[in-house]
Amino acid sequence: MFNGELSKKQLAELRGALADLELPKAKRQRLLWRLAKYGLIAAAKRNARNQQSPDGAPWPGRKTKRRGKMLRNLPKLLHIREMPEIDAVRVYLQGGGYRNGEAPVPAGVVGYAQQNGMNVRVSRSSKASKQDAGKLATIAQAKKLRALGYQVKRGKKTKKPTYREITETMPYAQAGLLIRKLSGKAVKTSWTVDLPARAFLGMSDEDFNKALARQLQAIGFGWDVKAQDIRGKT
After folding, report:
1. Model's pTM, two decimal places?
2. Could you tell me if 89 and 32 are in contact, meaning their C-beta atoms sit under 8 angstroms apart?
3. Disulfide: which of 4, 48, 84, 215 matches 34 by Cβ 3.0-4.6 Å?
4. Exposed, middle or buried: residue 220 (CB in 10 Å: 0-12, 13-18, 19+)?
5. What DSSP string describes 112-140?
6. What is the four-CA torsion angle of 47, 52, 54, 60, rounded to 10 degrees?
7. What radius of gyration do the chain's Cα atoms show?
8. What is the dihedral of CA 225, 231, 233, 234, to 10 degrees?
9. Nearest to 81 by CA among 8, 3, 13
């Protein structure tokens, strides 16, 4: 489970507003739900749309040639759980159908990695055994092997195997290993994957102030409350 929270300053402002207005318990819970729905989750969708963190900083770009917006679907997986027993609501991620090979990956794990960044050590043996087991060489690998001069022995002679021979008999992992050797590249047994933080869950202080004023008005309290009146209040 991946939980979302307001900043300490924003929590202090929210508690102050609740204390000053002396809201009934049901109204307090309704205000929290609306802040989560129309404040925090709406901000997360806006952050993903603008490809930026809550503070307005642009997200680090991809290191690959892949184009298109990042994290487009994550905000759609945000849900709210009401917790009236402790005067709170919980924002969490659920669904998405994420997988790592054959193993399912919870949306909360994906969200946590994107929100905070992640550093993972990957082993070639473990990756190959899980993802490439039973997979045969691709046509691209076959073309690369022939271009690098790969040959096989046929009786007393050697010859280049055909694309079909390579793609129908050679394992994918073996083809990759041969390509690296023939290219003169060092074969890595492990490497590090660095995923930069792309914070999407959260609000700036200005957005929070506006959301709080708007939702107080929506539940029938603070009809004359303006965002600038809340700003800086603790």
Report:
1. 0.68
2. yes
3. 215
4. exposed
5. HHHHH-EEEEEEHHHHHHHHSTTPBPPHH
6. 140
7. 27
8. 120
9. 3
